Amino acid sequence: MMERIIARTEACYVKAEQFFQRTFARPDIHLDLRGQRAGVAYLDRNLLRFNGQMYRENSAHFLQQTVAHEVAHLIAHQLYGHRIRPHGREWQALMTGLFELPADRCHNYAVARRRSTQYLYRCACPDHMPFTARRHALVKKGNRYLCRRCGDALHFTGKSQQV
């Protein structure tokens, strides 16, 4: 799996080097990204991270579009520096002019939402107030929260629900 991403990355760099008649430093590549993002380019670290799950589910399009998208960020940075916008005209020109691909900012891959737990809190109002696991942990550490409607302190009911 990683070999195909490395090969596609190299092909993008070779094309850029032929076009611009200069060399570009090759990035480190990791296939450890999770969540909603298909890929991320770390400009100052010359690093590309890709989402392995999205690659497995959309391999042909991912190799063609997503890898080129992230490589274009690194090349734009090496050519034009920090002062350009991430998806500005320099990046767009690389995508459409050099790689002959659409300059799409975002992917449209199906992303499964992770199930999470909500912790139910209560005040004088009739409705429960759901807290995230992070906010619930802060309450356990001593943070206090007040209801925006009635102003009373919110207290954990001892109940939670999966969403």
TrEMBL record:
InterPro entries associated with the record: SprT-like_domain
Superkingdom field: Bacteria
A Pfam family of this chain: SprT-like
GO biological process, one term: response to stress
Annotated SprT-like domain residues: 7-157
SMART domains xref list: SprT
Entry-linked PANTHER family: PROTEIN SPRT
Protein name in UniProt: SprT family protein
